[in-house]
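Per your request, structure below.
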């Protein structure tokens, strides 16, 4: 990273951070203008804290002290402060020292002494830990590799800040002082500590918004109607358990309560004597700054801004939105919105509906986040239609519709839902992703414990939706989908698919494999389900077709038989209304209700396998299956609790080994393969009692749960079964569950990023710094620059990536000398942009055996295609025959660092047959990447050809991934073609692009994004 000139104020060090209690603080460098703030801050620090800082009574700062602590060169002497409400709450500074502990004279000295001071009222909020992360990053940027700190033994809090940071450290005790020295190079432990603190802090900040003890609706009108009054009405109708106040400066002075709601009414927030946790703001945008100021001064913890007129309204609105965010964060508040639809929490001890939704959704275990109010309405309505009421299949735990999401985003909700015991499935509707690298990291971690289902809007137009100031995606939508799946995200296309997948994932256990049993009383409907399974890549068995007059008992017996067999991993039940005479249950007697009871009984006996239902014209069946299980009648014993499932990982391998590929039926015969022999039931393992894990289930980590202060609540096995009006919808949702289950099993044993002894990371970094200094002075700001070919080859060689030499051939004589130097046979190629890699246009001539043939070929090339100046011919030695491939790595501002692979030529350029993985890629991921392209058989001996060296290809992909991951300045690598032979490979062409590294990345200290 290039350093700014000494004494220049480093704006990229400024950051907003979330503290341990969920509040926010601003971290920035201290400047000479902060003298009064520093003095005021010091006056509010206790004598004990001053003693711990200076090792002696130090009641006040002298003018010399103030000057010293506010004047820095931002290289050898740096001071950072944490601010809330524009005032200092903590400071940290470092001074570069030499080996003797004296002020450094040599810029090569790489050690600094560091010291903190935190205001007593803010101790315990994690301020010092956050400052340590940021000052360590600053020090590394300035060439400091080690911190030293002297602490009094009684100052246990500060000692703990250092020892808990995760850095490699040394501790000594001398002259009554504890001396701590620690390296600043990030370690696996220090990164884990930082990520853990980030998760707990951001989750806590969301929890404060979702579970307030008191709410003030600011802008509640005097007359019914309007946004504010509607939000107030929703809040009261939901049964909110906390205190509610209505605030409007237009209320009469003698008005005490708002009628007919009968809630306290005040003209200004300061008139409320009690603390306010959440302010719901519904006033015109021009009045919002005054309201936010009042909220900050009153100590409000969070804001929900329903008001519009911000970034969605154009450039002026965008600036208004940025100012709003700065103002809210200056008071330590987080905000949802502006232009938000609202938030909902169905927990019985909260019952919060601070939204414009007219009805409180049923309580359940689906977490729902949207960036669009319209989509939020559609999702809430769709879920309500599929399972209304508390405890139904479609119940939600929490709902947030963030509008322009200037602050709180889907990433924050992922942090909260990661270990929220009341949320089993996460559903996200996103129109933009503000911090894609962080999203991929959080989504992968969350998906490892519960499903994350995402629908992405604004996929193809290349622009962010109004109100979303984020980088646009330059990679195709198919690439984004592939990268999401790599992170374990279940990507769907429509709102309907979001609901379909969410219902199955929230109610059914994890399938152990792709083998699907189909049963029902309609052969046609079963055939549709069978075809849908094949389309989705599942392995359907021959359907068990019951008579059209089958009774609920027949269904129960058939489902029990299918579930008890070893040959299936999931069951699809198809049902149509009863047709025939003498039925035990008629349509008038609620046939659907009886059938639902029968299916529930069978499913409850085998909770380890998912069941889904496809129905036609049986709405009562779907409604009954979606509703909570009826409570046992008084005096009756509840049914036996089902045994806990052994989980997906335990049986997946065994089941997969018994799976068989479906065989198409010959023409004129039944479309189904022969029914397999049903083996006898396997004995079930003895497991501890308890609920079976659903798709969202995870083994609880007591230490983590205790640390996060979110103990899991026990839940009995769900007996709700999702029902769909179309076979394709049911099977698609089941297929997503199967693919997600497979990802979960693979994620349990992740791959690794190999270490290669020949990689010269430090030397490559020095090369990059030198090249940037030489190439970028005249380049436009923010633009990447191409690296000259020889420098690119040398840089790649630092990572063990060796390219075949290419010699220019501007005339026939030079071409002959180049060929003699390389040795025959050689290739003659053009490098003009319009002919590069276009052998089909005659720009590449191979296997030239001698001088005469080379001169003749050179003459033909220039006669047919153009002059040497236009063609730019080069000579290169021939390599062993193989398969031409292409490897690319690029930094996309919205997708992050992406590694791409495909076959060169038509497969990748014409058909788009390219596989993508996020960087850093593991050995397992690149192996899957190679096999995932449609043309992969050409690499593995298709139609009798010789297989190529895919192990060497995997290693090359991993080396490219390491180069881009180690050096964020490398924004593009293009290797084409890479000829993969039976033994080894050859890189025939390579280009590299560089750009100054971004000031901050997701690997740096935690910080809130600014859009």
């Amino acid at each position: 990273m290039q350093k700014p000139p000494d004494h220049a104020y480093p704006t990229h060090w400024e950051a907003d951070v979330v503290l341990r209690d969920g509040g926010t603080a601003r971290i920035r460098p201290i400047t000479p203008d902060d003298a009064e703030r520093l003095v005021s801050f010091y006056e509010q620090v206790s004598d004990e804290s001053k003693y711990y800082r200076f090792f002696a009574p130090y009641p006040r700062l002298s003018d010399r002290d103030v000057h010293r602590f506010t004047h820095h060169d931002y290289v050898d002497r740096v001071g950072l402060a944490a601010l809330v409400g524009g005032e200092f709450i903590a400071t940290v500074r470092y001074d570069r020292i030499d080996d003797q502990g004296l002020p450094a004279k040599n810029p090569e000295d790489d050690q600094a002494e560091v010291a903190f001071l935190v205001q007593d009222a803010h101790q315990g909020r994690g301020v010092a830990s956050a400052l340590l992360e940021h000052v360590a990053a600053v020090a590394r940027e300035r060439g400091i590799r080690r911190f030293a700190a002297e602490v009094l033994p009684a100052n246990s809090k500060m000692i703990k800040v250092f020892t808990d940071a995760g850095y490699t450290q040394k501790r000594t005790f001398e002259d009554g002082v504890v001396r701590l020295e620690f390296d600043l190079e990030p370690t696996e432990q220090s990164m884990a500590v930082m990520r853990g603190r980030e998760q707990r802090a951001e989750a806590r900040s969301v929890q404060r918004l979702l579970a307030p003890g008191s709410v003030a609706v600011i802008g509640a009108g005097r007359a019914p109607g309007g946004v504010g009054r509607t939000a107030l009405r929703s809040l009261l109708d939901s049964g909110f358990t906390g205190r509610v106040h209505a605030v409007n400066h237009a209320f009469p002075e003698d008005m005490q309560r708002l009628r007919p709601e009968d809630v306290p009414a005040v003209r200004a927030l300061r008139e409320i004597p009690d603390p306010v946790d959440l302010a719901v703001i519904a006033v015109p945008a021009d009045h919002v700054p005054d309201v936010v100021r009042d909220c900050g001064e009153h100590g409000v913890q969070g804001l929900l801004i329903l008001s519009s007129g911000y970034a969605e309204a154009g450039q002026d609105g965008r600036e208004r939105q940025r100012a709003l965010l700065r103002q809210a964060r200056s008071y330590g508040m987080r905000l949802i919105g502006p232009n938000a639809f609202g938030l909902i929490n169905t927990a019985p001890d909260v019952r919060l509906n601070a939204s414009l939704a007219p009805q409180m959704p049923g309580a359940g275990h689906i977490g729902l986040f949207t960036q669009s109010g319209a989509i939020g309405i559609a999702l809430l309505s769709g879920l309500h239609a599929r399972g209304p009421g508390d405890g139904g299949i479609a119940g939600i735990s929490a709902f947030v519709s963030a509008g322009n999401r200037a602050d709180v985003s889907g990433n924050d909700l992922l942090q909260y839902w990661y270990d929220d015991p009341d949320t089993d499935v996460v559903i996200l509707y996103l129109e933009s992703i503000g911090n894609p690298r962080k999203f991929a990291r959080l989504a992968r971690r969350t998906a490892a414990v519960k499903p994350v289902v995402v629908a992405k809007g604004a996929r193809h137009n290349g622009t962010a939706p109004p109100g979303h100031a984020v980088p646009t995606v330059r990679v195709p939508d198919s690439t984004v989908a592939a990268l999401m799946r790599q992170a374990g995200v279940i990507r769907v296309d429509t709102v309907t698919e979001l609901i379909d997948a969410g219902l199955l994932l929230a109610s059914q256990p994890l399938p152990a494999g792709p083998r699907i049993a189909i049963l029902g009383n309609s052969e046609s409907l079963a055939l549709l389900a069978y075809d849908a399974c094949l389309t989705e890549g599942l392995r359907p068995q021959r359907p068990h077709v019951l008579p059209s007059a089958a009774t609920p008992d027949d269904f129960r017996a058939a489902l029990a038989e299918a579930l008890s067999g070893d040959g299936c991993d999931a069951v699809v039940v198809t049902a149509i209304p009863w047709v025939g005479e003498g039925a035990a249950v008629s349509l008038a007697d609620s046939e659907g209700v009886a059938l639902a009871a029968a299916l529930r009984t069978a499913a409850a006996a085998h909770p380890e396998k998912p069941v889904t239902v496809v129905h036609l014209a049986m709405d009562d069946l779907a409604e009954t299956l979606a509703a909570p299980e009826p409570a046992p009648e008084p005096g009756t014993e509840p049914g036996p609790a089902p045994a806990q499932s052994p989980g997906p990982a335990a049986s997946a391998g065994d089941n997969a080994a018994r799976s068989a590929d479906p065989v198409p039926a010959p023409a004129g015969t039944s479309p189904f393969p022969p029914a397999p022999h049903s083996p006898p039931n396997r004995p079930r393992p003895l497991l501890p009692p308890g609920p079976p894990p659903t798709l969202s289930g995870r083994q609880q980590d007591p230490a983590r749960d205790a640390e996060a202060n979110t103990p899991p609540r026990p839940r009995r096995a769900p007996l709700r079964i999702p029902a769909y009006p179309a076979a394709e919808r049911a099977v698609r949702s089941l297929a997503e569950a199967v693919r997600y289950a497979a990802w979960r099993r693979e994620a349990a044993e992740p791959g690794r990023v190999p270490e290669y002894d020949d990689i010269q990371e430090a030397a490559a970094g020095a090369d990059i710094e030198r090249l940037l200094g030489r190439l970028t002075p005249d380049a436009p700001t923010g633009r990447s620059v191409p690296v000259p070919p020889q420098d690119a080859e040398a840089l790649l060689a630092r990572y063990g990536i060796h390219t075949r030499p290419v010699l220019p051939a501007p005339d026939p004589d030079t071409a002959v000398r180049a060929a003699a130097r390389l040795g025959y046979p050689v290739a003659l190629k053009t490098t003009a942009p319009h002919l590069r890699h276009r052998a089909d246009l005659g720009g590449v001539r191979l296997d030239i055996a001698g001088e005469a043939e080379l001169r003749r070929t050179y003459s033909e090339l220039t006669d047919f295609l153009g002059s040497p100046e236009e063609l730019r011919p080069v000579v290169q030695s021939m390599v062993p025959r193989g398969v031409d491939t292409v490897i690319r790595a690029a930094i996309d501002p919205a997708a992050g660092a992406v590694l791409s692979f495909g076959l060169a030529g038509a497969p990748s350029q014409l058909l788009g047959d390219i596989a993508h993985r996020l960087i850093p890629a593991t050995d397992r991921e690149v192996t899957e990447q190679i096999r995932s392209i449609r043309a992969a058989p050409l690499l593995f001996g298709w139609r009798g050809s010789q297989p190529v060296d895919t192990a060497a290809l995997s290693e090359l992909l991993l080396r490219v991934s390491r180069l881009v991951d180690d050096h964020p300045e490398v924004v593009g690598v293009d290797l084409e073609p890479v000829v993969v032979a039976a033994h080894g490979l050859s890189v025939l062409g390579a280009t590299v692009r560089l750009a100054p590294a971004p000031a901050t990345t997701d690997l740096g200290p935690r910080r809130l994004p600014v859009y």
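The CA atoms of residues 531 and 621 lie 24 Å apart.

Regards,
D.
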